[in-house]
Write a structure and sequence with these properties.
This protein is an all-alpha fold and 145 residues long. Helices cover 70% and strands 3% of the residues. It is built from 6 helices and 2 strands; from the N terminus they run ααββαααα. A hairpin with a 2-residue loop joins strand 1 and strand 2. Helix 3 packs antiparallel against helix 4. The two termini are 13 Å apart.
Length: 145
């Protein structure tokens, strides 16, 4: 007997993994020398810490969390389109994190961003090949075929 996992569950699981990885990478980044001191001095990258900056950051980290719910709740066609668009937008957003980093941190960013992009590629692949017309009508169990 083969268990078929619904497409929505596969995509929601990938967004959940992406969300946790996204948060862990940010948390581990705090351990890089000088990062916390810079934040405590009111700077993140070249930006002053401010309400608008933190609001934008919150919105960006909320995207994967919201996508978990949307992947399970949206109607099929809207679900597919939303996942394709959001994942496409997040690929360059994830790659941006490596800009300006030294070779000393290459392995850290290769693994973290590599995994983020791999999860986004999985989401894109699953959403792209999703048979939307077939997903609407339930299929007969394998034993009934």
């Amino acid at each position: 007997m083969t268990t078929t996992i619904p497409v929505q569950a596969k995509i929601a699981a990938a967004w959940t993994s992406f969300m946790f990885l996204y948060a862990y990478v940010d948390i581990l980044n705090f351990f890089k020398p000088g990062v916390l001191a810079e934040i405590l001095n009111g700077k993140v990258w070249d930006f002053e810490v401010s309400a608008p900056l933190l609001t934008v950051m919150l919105a960006s980290v909320a995207v994967p969390a919201v996508m978990v719910v949307l992947s399970l709740a949206l109607p099929t066609r809207a679900n597919r389109i939303t996942n394709l668009v959001v994942a496409i937008v997040l690929v360059p957003y994830s790659l941006f994190n490596v800009v300006g980093e030294s070779l000393e941190w290459a392995a850290f960013y290769a693994i973290s961003i590599g995994l983020e992009v791999a999860l986004l590629a999985f989401i894109l692949r699953v959403a792209w090949i999703w048979n939307v017309a077939g997903a609407i009508a339930p299929t007969a169990p394998e034993s009934a075929r």
